[in-house]
Amino acid sequence: MALKTLYEDLGANYLGDTYANAWFRSGDKIHQFRGCVRSAILTSSFNINDPTLVLNEDRVDARSLPDFTSFKYPKLGYREIRSEVSNSICAKTVRHISMSRSASRGLRVELLRINPLQVYTLLDRQKDDEAGSYSNATHELLKEIFVPTFTPWSVGVKKLMDGEIPAFAINENLAISLSCTSSADATYEILFKERVVGTVSETGKPILNNKILHRDIAKAFT
Predict the structure, then answer these.
(1) Which residue of 5, 77, 99, 191 sits 20 to 30 Å from the alpha carbon of 176, by its own alpha carbon?
(2) Three-class SS of residue 26?
(3) What is the pLDDT of residue 169?
(4) Cβ(132)–Cβ(84) under 8 Å?
């Protein structure tokens, strides 16, 4: 006997109560759960391949969501979010993203905690959300959460040292930034889950404070 889908097993009321307003990805679209009608899940969605990221009314066949993993999302942490600020130093800003605990399931924008790196505050470049409508800024954020793009160490460190960018993210755990500590001797700092764990030498080599940590994340610096 075929396994029941999430909708068939739990019913429309449970899905509606548990996942109302949650965001999830299905194919090339990122959807916000709106409700259930028969075997269809009503959503608002935007296509990740559409540069405008315009939100449209949509629906998803409930049978295409077999279980709870359908609402999973990539590990949160650092993301490089596209900036529309005029005269900005870089096209993207690095932010650390986490989500508050909740009884509700799924990814919810209202529960996200978004912390731009300190360097952007010092450079007076923390104006991304003012650049366009709230919806578009939110959709940019959601796109990077579900389809993260990072900058390899070899590419990012060169741009950083050439003054092209103030920071970049290697992965969800690691970011490199201009130093924001006035007493620091180094020009650049290495951040691991929002903690400064090392610096970058004048020749572009990573210098980590903890040898054990170095073994765990060494691959990121290749």
Answers:
(1) 99
(2) strand
(3) 96
(4) yes
